[in-house]
């Protein structure tokens, strides 16, 4: 087994950069990316960029005959992937090919320390010997006619099917007194933060012509999504736009995003905001330009707005901060494209629980069209100012107190006036026939 390190440079589709895979003699490997500005390597976490699997990385466990595929198989431990897999030796290429037979299982009771497989090349008619070396790895040997003995053959690459290492969960011991502190927390309960996003691509959409749409990937779950930066609140909104494939970065390779994603103008402070990202590091950084200091200042990490209810609250706070007409129309346009449409469901539940209330409830999209003074008036129903004679009720209402000028009228006159002004709806059967 070679004792030197093996280096391989690949293009990582997850971090969108050149990654150097360093493979150790033990089969372990690590990924690094080179920063040209700082002139140093930084570790990169990526599941798809692995070291090249060689047959010298295999430790044979058991040789068996597969009756389903009609071929010899070798159960071997792969030191790169950290798991036991099935392999078949191909005589034509003198290399191993990974196979999968669910019916063939490894016999754990077989405690043989050395398994030998005899083979013969159909082209050269020379016998092969596959065995374990002193370190327990696969060693291929071929018969040499001149030396009349078996000589070692160089290791070759495996035709692999499995391309990801096995995930080993490590148990972390918690401090005493805090065992049950984080038991109820989960990834779904935690809000989506801007530092959780890995920006991949930039898009435009006809529904939001003046918005910059960023396709990004979640660093933990691997979920793809589209996000729009709101220039008034300085926060990102997660949207679902028709015609935009959020899985495009994973399917079609493209040129990576530049370090500077975009430069926008804040509609709240009228200052420039620079959206940046660092290759190999999750998160979108926001830098706002301060005119007094004449320098960019790093803004705090903020949660991503995903729900309509959050957008409505944002609009309410923005109206109190004197939001301009452009931002108000922008929120109205983006409202139906929010990822979680919980605003309408909430309004339906409120309307059902209100029953026969006479108060008129307005949708948030309609209420923003009115000024703050109109909202205060809408709290009191306008119907209560109408005269009571225009409403029909099955229950008798209390008579109104007469005005001082009307107290001099006779009781018969008042009764006649009430009969003339009052009416009720009757059916056709109750009408008098001529």
UniProtKB/TrEMBL annotation:
Any one GO biological process: autophagy
Region (Disordered): 342-434
Annotated GO CC locations: cytoplasm
InterPro entries assigned: Sepa-1
Residue spans of biased composition, Basic and acidic residues class: 342-351, 358-372, 403-416
Record-given protein name: Protein CBG08473
